[in-house]
Amino acid sequence: MTPRHRIVALVLLLGLAALVGAPTPIEAQAKRLVTIASGWVVGVYYPLAGAMSRIVYKAKDLNLRATVESSGASVANAKLIGGGEAEFALLQNDIAYYAHNGTEMFKDQAVKNMGGVFTIYPELIHVVATTTSGIRSPKDLKGKTVAIGPLGSGTEANAVQILEAYGLKLGDLRKAERIGAGEAADALKDGRVDAAFFTVGLGGAVIIDTFVTGKVALVPVTGTEAEALKKRYPFYTTTPVPANTYKGQEQEVSTVAVMAMMVARSDLPEDLVYRFTKAIFDDLAQFHAAHAAAKHLTLKTALDGMPIPLHPGAEKFYKEKGVK
């Protein structure tokens, strides 16, 4: 081999070595950082968002790192999306509808930059009362001290709507406490409030914690009032709380529920949201293991109660799967 041939061969070998050792386009890029707005640490949103974060991080074709942000839940999360402070968020389907259409608490501040990804599970409105309060129906809340959720929250909206269905206004309460779920649970246990509203998935940690005392009970939301509520607000469904879901709850209790759902900011690339959605459904086993409520999510149920247009990336995924 001549010196010239040796040089050519060396150049070819070095080039081949560079190609073999070179990272793929995905590997060469730093993982994109996105935020998933979740909810109270004691609720269901937080562990679900954590599971999604872990799933997308290990997805080889996604190259994404998602951080989970604890927040005030639905209304706050819609505003985080609207302000560009979060890329993904969990929220109630009724709140998503209000935000997208600029109604209710979103009058004059519609959130148009939000697309649906999937709905997950029913969020039950738990009306929890102390056993000494004598409250057996929402109509009995008249003249009582009631925790209705933080000001401007989804829980507050649910509380106001249920009270209206039973012919009551906030002014009919002795006092409306606008506090978070954890604080409301403590207030119930200490007897500082007679009842509290919680909008959370079946078996939510905050409800379990409240029932540990043995001094509270679920208040059913049923009858003609519940039917009127569903007629006026079609996002509500009737959902049973099976007996023995909570300590001392020996009978099934019927209440109403909305759907928890996932949204994405509309300006996120179609391919990113497509791969995000695909990653979750490719690893449903890990998602389902995060919380009992997560087990409701399947391809068959992913669009149940979807109140807003899908993000194009999610829409592409469902079209490929034949989901309508």
Fold and architecture overview:
The structure is a single chain. With 324 residues, the chain is an alpha/beta fold. It has two domains: 29-121 and 260-321, D-Maltodextrin-Binding Protein, domain 2, CATH 3.40.190.10; 123-258, Periplasmic binding protein-like II (D-Maltodextrin-Binding Protein, domain 2). 38% of the residues lie in helices and 21% in strands. The protein has helices spanning 3-21, 25-28, 45-58, 74-82, 93-101, 154-165, 181-190, 205-211, 223-232, 270-282, 284-290, 312-321; strands at residues 32-37, 64-69, 88-92, 114-130, 145-147, 175-177, 195-201, 216-218, 237-241, 253-265. Strands 1, 2, 3, 4, 5, 6, 7, 8, 9 and 10 form a ten-stranded mixed beta sheet that branches. α3 (45-58) links the parallel β1 and β2. α10 packs across α12 (312-321). It is globular, with a radius of gyration of 24 Å. It starts with a helix and ends with a helix. The model is unreliable at 3-28 (pLDDT under 50).
Shape summary:
globular
Mean pLDDT: 90
For the record, the count of structural domains works out to: 2
The level 1 CATH classification of the largest domain is: Alpha Beta
Question: How do the strands and helices of this protein lay out in sequence?
Answer:
Elements lengths: L2 H19 L3 H4 L3 E6 L7 H14 L5 E6 L4 H9 L5 E5 H9 L12 E17 L14 E3 L6 H12 L9 E3 L3 H10 L4 E7 L3 H7 L4 E3 L4 H10 L4 E5 L11 E13 L4 H13 L1 H7 L21 H10 L3
Parallel strand pairs: 1-2, 1-3, 5-6, 5-7
Antiparallel strand pairs: 3-10, 4-7, 4-8, 4-10, 9-10
Helix pairs in contact: 3-11, 6-9, 7-8, 10-12
